[in-house]
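Hi P.,

Sorry for the delay on this. The queue was packed all week, but I finally got your sequence through. Input first:
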Amino acid sequence: MQIDCGNGIVILLTGQLDRARVKRDSDGLGIADVKTGGAAVSQGVAKTKGHAPQIGTYELLYEHTTGERITAPAEIIGLKTKGAPEVGTGEIIERMEREGVVTAADSNGGREVLDAAVVDAEFEEIKAIGVERFAGHTLGEIAIGAATKKDVFDLGWLQSRFALTSDEGERVILQLLDQGVIVLEAENADDRKLNTYRIVKKPGEIALDLE
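Then the structure:
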C-alpha cells in the first residue's frame, strides 16, 4: 500500500493486517485497541498520547483491506496491570481536539492541524517508548520460546521457564490470550493458577515485536 504524503514523499506500507478490533456506534465504524501497563489508565481514562500514529496506520490498513471507510474516532481500551486494577477508555481525536492540536471535523469529516509540533511529538514519543519486558524478556520472545517447547502449559511452567514472578506470569498469559497466541485449555474452578493453556500459533507465526 502506498501513501502519498505530498511534496514527492510516498510511504510504502508493507506487511499484513491479520485482525482488527472494530467498534460500531452512531458515528459509524472505528478501530479500538487494547493497551496494558502500569500507566495505561489514569483517573479512569485510558492513556491515548503516543498511540495516534499506530492506530492511524491500523485505520488505513483496515480501509485498504476491507474497502470499508473508517468514520468513528479511534478508541484506546486501557487495562492497568500494576497497583490497583483499573480499566478505562479514551478517544484519540477527542484528546487532540481538547488540547487544541486539531480542529473539530468539518461537514466532510476533514480536520485542520493547528499545532504541527505536537503531532510531530506524537511520532517522537513512539521512538522513546520502551518495550515492556518480563524478567528481561519481551512478550514476543516469551511467546516464541513457549511455542518451541510446549503445546500446553500452565502458569507454573511459564514462571519456571522464564524466571517470572507470579504477577508477571499472569500478565503475560492475559496478553497472549488477547493476542490470540494461546487459548484456555482447561479451567480449574478452585485455583486459576492451575489453569492450562494451549498454544495455537506456531513460532513462525508469532511476531518478535508482539506487544
